[in-house]
Structure formats: C-alpha cells, structure tokens
Design brief:
CATH architecture: 2-Layer Sandwich
Shape: elongated
Helix content: 10-25%
Number of strands: 4
Strand content: 25-35%
Strand order of the largest sheet: 2-3-1-4
Radius of gyration: 16 Å
Largest sheet: 4 strands, antiparallel
Oligomer: single chain
C-alpha cells in the first residue's frame, strides 16, 4: 500500500529536510509555499489576542512512499523540524489507492520508484 505524507514545516527547515530525505532514498516530492494558522491563531508566543488571526508562512511537502518506510520518513522529518515552540508544523499520513506514471502508464509502486 502506498501512503502520502503531507508535512507543513517552517520555511527555514526546507533545505535541511530535503537533503536528509534524499540521503535516505526519497526520490521525489512536491513542495508548495503556503500560509496558515493553528490553535494559537498564528501567534508563536502562545497567546491568542482577541479574535485576530495571523497567517504564518509554511512549506507544504507532499511525498508518496511505500507503507514500509513511512515511520522512518516521519522520524526523520520530526527530528529535523521539531523546535519545541508553537508553529513547528504538522504531518498527515493519507492512504493512496493508486499512482500512475503518465509517461509509461506504470501503476502502483512502480509508478513512484
């Protein structure tokens, strides 16, 4: 079974995470620059003044991998992005029913490796 790992990380962590993931064999990923907020409404000092919301810049990484390596992938990302502060990010793991490489029409695991 394939899994899609979606991560929202701080922008200054991107290069370090990308390099580490290439070193452990991740052969492809997509990234997007996004903005968002969580429980603290974008205030990194823990306060939530009034009802105002502050959108913070984040990087969204999307990586599709075999189920067997998801735990190692997550451990690597957490190790490199954990700051102990609000706003360190989130990771979501989503089942992928299938993947198709358009050029060759390969599907499943062979479409991502």
């Amino acid at each position: 079974m394939l899994r899609k790992v979606e991560c929202f990380i701080q922008p200054f962590k991107l290069d370090e995470v990308k390099d580490a993931l290439f070193d452990v064999g991740i052969e492809g990923m997509s990234i997007s620059e996004v903005k968002g907020f969580g429980k603290q409404r974008g205030y990194t000092n823990g306060g939530t003044p009034n009802r105002t919301v502050k959108f913070l810049p984040k990087i969204k990484m999307e990586i599709v991998v075999e189920e067997e390596i998801v735990d190692d992938l997550i451990k690597t990302i957490v190790k490199l992005t954990k700051t102990g502060d609000f706003g360190s990010g989130k990771i979501f793991v989503i089942p992928v029913e299938d993947a198709i490489r358009i050029r060759t029409e390969e599907s499943g695991k062979s479409a991502i490796i």
